[in-house]
Every structure is written in structure tokens, then in C-alpha cells.
Amino acid sequence: MTPLQRYIAEEIAADHADGLLNRREALRRLGLLGFGVPAAVALLAACGGDDTDRPAATQTATAPPPSAPPGTSTAVPTTPISFAGTDNRALQGAWAAAAQPRGAVLVVHENKGLTDHIRSVTGRFAGAGYSALAVDLLSAKGGTAAFTDPAAATAELSNTPQDQFIADLRAGLDELGRRVPGKKIGATGFCFGGGLVWLLLASGPSALAAATPFYGPFPDGGDLSRSKAAVLGVYAAKDARVDASRPAAEAALNRTGNPHEIWVAPDADHAFFNDTGQRYAPVAATEAWTKVLAWYGTHLG
Hints:
Low-confidence stretches: 56-64
């Protein structure tokens, strides 16, 4: 099991422990990842789940958040595009052009693929002055839209070689360089995508001038010494699972000598920026968005 496969499996188990998935659905999703029933049951128990097949938690009809999700008021609509990846493989993506780009941002999706939420974030960056591209990392399988079961999309991502992810993301950087010539490039990823941003930083020299990974697992033995990017790592105070790798990320960043900062959102949990999810924390999301734009304003333009 690769670190990313382990991360996805543990995320399913954590969602079950937090009541976001009932036991039957959690076992189904782990089965799609290749877990046999005994191993799946053991993982659920290890992550604090129980044997009760209770209904999954649902969002209650409470008062709406105090404001629209950060950046949505000026967001630019995205356009579906295709472009060439490694060996001329066709890649799909969502593109949003800033009217007068200050820089460019590669957006890396969560383990559900290129969703409407990620398209929204891509458009938000363009509205803030950074032309943005989100690469569909399921392009080789027809794209995220080809999967009617989001859990199947997650399973497919778990079976994709990490080298392919890095190749596709580097192709995304190249595409941004063609579409926004002469501008500096950043990368922002969420959850699984945050882990891929860390992997991209550790994969060697690239066009990245800055990066802002959100609550993504730091790769085992990750070495950032060949990266020149200024990194803002975003974490959540209640996200103990991902926070466990934060000391390794901080140590690796300290060794680079590059500008870096770690920000931990107080009173927030994993995936707090995703306004379509049950852990969305509007105050933390707004503060994170402000910090990301300030970081890119300093290091991209």
C-alpha cells in the first residue's frame, strides 16, 4: 500500500468514526480499494469506529453561513479544456482566465476528482487575479464525469501510480506556462490534492514559485531541497491524522532555506475549506483564503 492509498483508506475510516459514513458504506468503499472484510473491519476499529450500522450524519437545516464562501463573489466561470500530457496523452481540465493575470495557479483536487467545488475554487483564483487550471487526474479513465459512483472515482485514484500524478501535474504547469507566459506559478491542493502538492514539491525542480497545500499528508522521507517554491502549509487544529505529518513538513521546509510558513486553523477540522462538505468552517475558510491570496501576492505578483 502506497502512502496515498493508506491516506485514502484512513480518510474513509475517519469519516466513519466521525459519523459521516455509516459502517456499510465505509466497508463498501474500503472494498473498492481492495480491502477484504476482516482488514476493513480492523481499520474501522483502529480509527475509532464501532460496529453499529447507524445512518450517516446529515447536514441539519440550521442558519446559513454568515456569508458566501470566500472568493465566490468575484469568481470567474471555468471552461473545460483538453491539453497534451506526457507521451501526448490527452488530459482534461478546468480553466479560468484572469482579466489581467498577476500570476497563475495550478489547483489540485481532492480524492473525488474534478468536482464542481474544485471548479469553483479555480474560478475564485481567476477572480482574484490568478489565471488557474485544475487538472482532472482521472483523465486516463475518461475523466471524473465518467464515474457515476464517487467512491469508484476515489478507488481509481488510489490505484493510479504516483508517477502518473506527478507527470500530469507537471503537464498542467507547462500548460499554465503557455497560457500565462512570463508569470510566476503557484499550486494549491486540498486533502489528497494537498498531499500531491507536497509530492510535486519533492519531485525535483519545477516551475513552481509558490505553493499552498491544504491539510495534505507529507510524503514519507519527503525531500524539498531541490524546490525553490515559497510554501504556506495550511492545517486544521482538529485534524490529528494529517497533523501527525506536520513536523516532518516543517523540518523539510526548514532545511530548504526558502520562505515558508505553517498556519493552523483554530477550531477547524480536516477539509474545512470545502463548502460542499460537512466539515466546512466558514470563518477558518475565509481566513485561509485571505492568507493564501496574501502569500501569492508576495511570491507570485
